[in-house]
Amino acid sequence: MATRKIDFPVANVRRYLEPGPIVLVSSAWRDKRNIMTMGWHTVMEFVPALVGCVIAGGNYSFSLIRRSGECVINLPTTALTDTVVGIGNCSGAAVDKFEKFGLTALPARNVKASLIAECHANFECRLKDDSLVDRYNFFIFEVVKAHVAPRPKYPQTLHYTGDGVFVVSGKIVSRRSQFRPKML
Ligand SMILES: Cc1cc2nc3c(=O)[nH]c(=O)nc-3n(C[C@H](O)[C@H](O)[C@H](O)COP(=O)(O)O)c2cc1C
């Protein structure tokens, strides 16, 4: 059934196109470490596992990740909602966000950046392609190691709609039987 539409500001289309999930990106370079909140990421390829994302040039994380060529993408759940907001509203240039937000840094296997223990999953990433960084601040990472909590299978993740509002992942809908095997 067709629905009636109204004119909508293009600057706000993120409200519909930015499904998240919100992630916490940890980084390290020399003796510095940091965490930033991120919603602007996208899966680009399954094998190798490529993830593209925008890291604003003014972020402290930008310089650590540009220099080290590494990061960890950590997946928080709703248990960390206030932490997600707090981390995304301050700069790591002045504070250690692991200490400020009481997060546990665990060593990663393949990168120097730490895993955030309180998150549901941790994806160790290496910078694969920086050809779009100067023009768009767009980094293409390869996930080289993944750590995932076995339960719950579908964690309650946060999905940002802009304007300080999140949607929480909810009802699970499966249509597995209607998929061609190679599409799964
Ligand atoms: C919900 C949310 C989503 C965000 N998504 C992004 C993003 O995708 N890319 C980005 O550059 N900044 C994003 N930010 C802003 C950064 O998290 C914020 O600028 C942070 O303070 C940067 O920290 P840093 O300077 O310590 O690196 C987001 C912030 C919030 C609260």
Largest sheet: 7 strands, antiparallel
Helices and strands, in order, run as HEEEEHEHHEEEHEEE
What's the tally of helices? 5
Distance between the termini: 28 Å
- What shape does the CA trace take? globular
Helix content class: 10-25%
SSE-based structural type: alpha+beta
Tally of extended strands?
11
- How much is the radius of gyration in Å? 17 Å
Q: Provide the spatial order of strands within the biggest beta sheet.
A: 2-1-5-8-9-4-3
Question: Residue-averaged pLDDT, rounded?
Answer: 95
Q: Low-confidence segments, ≥5 residues, pLDDT <50?
A: none
Bound molecules: flavin mononucleotide
Percent of residues in beta strands: 25-35%
Overview of this structure, please?
Strand 10 (158-160) and strand 11 (166-168) form a beta hairpin. The protein has helices at residues 14-17, 60-68, 81-87, 97-100, 133-136, and strands spanning 23-29, 32-38, 41-45, 50-54, 70-75, 105-106, 115-116, 121-129, 138-148, 158-160, 166-168. It is built from 5 helices and 11 strands; from the N terminus they run H-E-E-E-E-H-E-H-H-E-E-E-H-E-E-E. With 184 residues, it is an alpha+beta fold. The protein binds flavin mononucleotide (FMN). Residues 22, 34, 36-40, 54-56, 59-61, 85, 88-92, 160 line the site of flavin mononucleotide.
Features:
single chain, 184 residues, alpha+beta, seven-stranded antiparallel β-sheet, two-stranded antiparallel sheet, 5 helices, 11 strands, globular, binds flavin mononucleotide
